[in-house]
Design brief:
- By secondary structure, this protein is of the alpha/beta class.
- It has a single domain, classed as Alpha-Beta Complex (Spore Coat Polysaccharide Biosynthesis Protein SpsA, Chain A), CATH 3.90.550.
- 31% of the residues lie in helices and 22% in strands.
- The chain contains six helices and eight strands; from the N terminus they run H-E-H-E-H-E-H-E-E-E-E-H-H-E.
- A four-stranded mixed β-sheet has the order 3-7-4-8.
- Helix 5 crosses helix 6.
Length: 191
């Protein structure tokens, strides 16, 4: 929250939270002085549902408005990344953050026990957040996905790529410190 609160490029913060934790989130926000926080809304069962709830909560007809989507599991986003995303939004309708892959990747057979091929790692990057879009772009992509009855994607850029393939998704270089905390090992816990 602090990263977005202090970023000059961010005007308003909306938190999407699992419905079971809305009151806890409200209490936490009341204890802080986040002046940009305007709404805490319930999320969905799937990531895409939470994104759609955010889109609907701010949906207005203004092509200048942008929607940024960021995982709370990435608490170390830097001001440099936020500024670079804001700058990229000036000339792109869809922006994501990513870092180059440094490990060798294996494409595996369906049984997951044999290597099928080894693609060149220079062709791959690891996705991070935030992802940011002109509101009209992400809203159009989600409406098309909902009409098709298939909103399956691991992130919001995937929805844009699938349903608005003519819109380039610009990549802003991320940072290794913008890591996602998913497992104990991500915070150095070796238990």
């Amino acid at each position: 929250m602090e990263a977005f609160e202090t970023a000059p490029c961010i005007d308003e913060i909306l938190v999407v939270m699992h419905p079971n934790f809305l009151e806890e989130a409200r209490r936490l926000c009341e204890r802080n002085t986040w002046r940009k926080l305007t709404q805490i809304i319930p999320g969905g069962d799937e990531r895409w549902e939470s994104s759609w709830h955010a889109i609907k909560a701010i949906s207005i007809q203004n092509s200048e408005v942008s929607l940024w989507l960021h995982d709370a599991a990435r608490p170390f986003v830097s001001q440099r990344i936020l500024a670079d995303v804001a700058k990229a939004l000036e000339s792109h309708k869809a922006v994501t953050v990513a870092v180059p892959v440094t490990d060798t990747l294996y494409k595996v057979e369906s049984n997951k026990s044999n290597v099928e091929s080894i693609p060149p790692r220079t062709d791959f990057m690891r996705a991070q957040t935030p992802q940011a879009f002109h509101l009209s772009t992400i809203e159009d992509a989600y409406r098309r996905a909902l009409e098709a009855g298939n909103v399956a994607a691991t992130d919001d850029a995937g929805i844009v790529l699938k349903y608005l393939p003519d819109i380039p998704i610009h990549i802003v270089l991320g940072e290794e410190s913008n890591k996602k905390i998913t497992y104990r090992e991500d915070i150095g816990d070796r238990r």
